[in-house]
Design brief:
The chain has 209 residues and is of the alpha+beta class. It has three domains: 1-48, Ribosomal protein S4/S9, N-terminal domain (Ribosomal Protein S4 Delta 41, Chain A, domain 1, Orthogonal Bundle); 51-91 and 195-209, Ribosomal Protein S4 Delta 41, Chain A, domain 1 (Orthogonal Bundle), CATH 1.10.1050; 100-185, RNA-binding S4 domain (Structural Genomics Hypothetical 15.5 Kd Protein In mrcA-pckA Intergenic Region, Chain A, Roll), CATH 3.10.290.10. The protein has nine helices and five strands, in the order αααααααβββαββα. Strands 2-1-3-5-4 form a five-stranded antiparallel sheet, covered by helices on one side. Helix 5 (89-98) packs across helix 9 (200-208). The longest helix has 16 residues, at 53-68.
Length: 209
């Protein structure tokens, strides 16, 4: 279930960065983080404490976990899987998170936030290669075709998104056909595209200590 708006704002303020948990509404001047860019609570406006290396690593892990909306156990499992893969473990970790089905739906512009994308997938609105998939953590791969089921496209949510999709800029690893609510995974996200609101190297350090 999606978090309420006030709790989402508190998470952004706690991490000191916009996590875009509310989608486009985070760009509004009414956004709590824009108005109060400091940690919530009575000590939020006080002098910031000097962070230890462990503290920095923990904060980066928390940012990433909250950004993608995954549990502690899921996140730890992504780390373990990334460590077993060839190449840079930090890039592997972010690629695993980016290629979750709910994130791919969000990146394609079929949802205004990752929380909304999770609900869309969980409610059975999405097909992968012709098969309905209702597992948000499903890992998409190059060549997969993601489609919003045709019998769902007449619902109000998709009619509202139709116009927004015309101006949506999808990442290079996705090819989107807005009129058909279809997206194709053409490759894995590149390192240049993985500059998110956190440092994956610090996350690797956190789990490797």
């Amino acid at each position: 279930m999606a978090r309420n708006l006030s709790s989402s704002c508190k998470l952004c303020r706690r991490e000191g960065v916009k996590l875009m948990l509310k989608g486009a509404r985070c760009e509004s001047s009414k956004c709590a983080f824009t108005r109060r860019p400091y940690a919530p609570g009575v000590h939020g406006t006080g002098r910031p404490r000097r962070q230890t290396d462990f503290g920095k690593q923990l904060r980066e892990k928390q940012k990433a976990k909250r950004l993608y909306g995954v549990s502690e156990t899921q996140f730890a499992n992504y780390y373990k899987k990334a460590m077993k893969m060839k190449g840079d473990s930090g890039i592997n970790l972010v690629q695993l998170l980016e290629t979750r089905l709910d994130n791919a739906i969000y990146r394609a512009g079929f949802a205004k936030s990752r929380a909304a994308a999770r609900q869309i997938v969980a409610h059975g609105h999405v097909q992968v290669n012709g098969t309905t998939v209702n597992i948000p953590s499903y890992q998409v791969k190059s060549g997969d075709i993601l489609v919003i089921r045709e019998n769902k496209q007449n619902k109000a949510i998709w009619k509202e998104l139709a116009e927004d999709l015309k101006n949506h800029e999808a990442p290079s690893w996705l090819t989107v056909e807005p009129a058909k609510f279809t997206a194709k995974v053409t490759s894995l996200p590149s390192a240049e595209e993985l500059k998110e609101a956190f440092d994956p190297k610090l996350i690797i350090e956190f789990y490797s200590r």
